[in-house]
Design goal:
mainly beta; about 280 residues; single chain; 19-stranded mixed barrel; about 65% strand; globular; 1 helix
Length: about 280
């Protein structure tokens, strides 16, 4: 895939991953195995309070075609077929859910040295059409993300974003919720050797005139162990430690506490992912 501005979903992604990825208050267990034919089978279970959710998924790769099939506890069958680069820079994704007959969707992604485009349409009589486009280069990217409901003739989503990337920092600015929410994020690599980075995200809602500021950091204690921490202006502080106790197998423990109500119990989350 050629280098360029990427897709719209990548604007601000580094900061979001640092601040929110792997944090959780639930208990999650994931096991992945591979058959002799190369089919990956993944079983997952999540305990949310008294509720337990589970699913089983398989992934089959044949040349440039990847097929993912997942079954959850509600007997829903999720199927995604991805064709990678049928033409240079192009990717096509077909997905549907059984028994939901209106869930069928096809998406096309195209990445160029100076542009990234993604468009999708549902397989219904009056589908929702999605379009996102980004223009720019490896340093500056400007894009928009739109969804149009052909049944009502209205835009259900209208977002815009700007991203700036330097050697060790990424800054982004997005306008979401049809212009109601302004989001600014910042990601800075402090030390590549120890994977040390800091990030921040500021969200302003024009309708409620509320601001949310979240700052966080990450650091690798050693090649197999990393820690992350974050805090927001509402006093919620979170931290996690993740250890790769064998190749591709991760153990993560995370916790969150409300510093303004310290008498409340902290939320503790555990995640175990096993891969051969």
């Amino acid at each position: 895939m050629v280098k360029g501005p990427g897709l719209y979903s990548e604007i601000g992604k580094k900061a979001r991953d640092l601040l929110y990825k792997d944090y959780q208050s639930d208990h999650k267990f994931t096991v992945t195995t591979y058959t002799s034919a190369g089919v990956a089978i993944t079983s997952s279970g999540v305990k949310k309070g008294e509720l337990f959710l589970a699913d089983v998924s398989t992934q089959l790769k044949n040349k440039n075609i990847t097929t993912d099939v997942k079954v959850d506890t509600n007997s829903n069958l999720f199927t995604t077929i991805t064709v990678d680069e049928p033409a240079p820079g192009l990717k096509s994704i077909f997905s549907f859910i059984v028994p939901d007959q209106r869930s069928g969707k096809v998406e096309l992604q195209y990445q160029h040295e100076y542009a990234g485009i993604s468009t999708g349409i549902g397989f219904t009589a009056n589908p929702i059409v999605n379009f996102s486009g980004v223009v720019g280069n490896n340093s500056v990217a400007l894009g928009t993300d739109l969804s149009f409901d052909t049944a009502t003739g209205n835009f259900t989503k209208c977002n815009a974003g700007l991203s700036y990337t330097h050697i060790d920092l990424i800054a982004s600015l997005t306008l979401n919720d049809k212009g109601d929410t302004l989001n600014a994020s910042y990601y800075h690599i402090v030390s590549p050797l120890t994977n040390t980075a800091v990030g921040a995200e500021l969200t302003h809602s024009f309708s409620s005139n509320e601001n949310t500021l979240t700052i966080g950091t990450q650091h690798a204690l050693d090649p197999l162990t990393s820690v992350k921490a974050r805090v927001n202006n509402y006093g919620r502080a979170s931290a996690l430690i993740q250890h790769e106790w064998r190749p591709k197998s991760l153990f993560t423990i995370s916790g969150e506490v409300d510093t303004r109500a310290i008498e409340k119990s902290a939320k503790i989350g555990l995640a175990l992912a096993l891969k051969p």
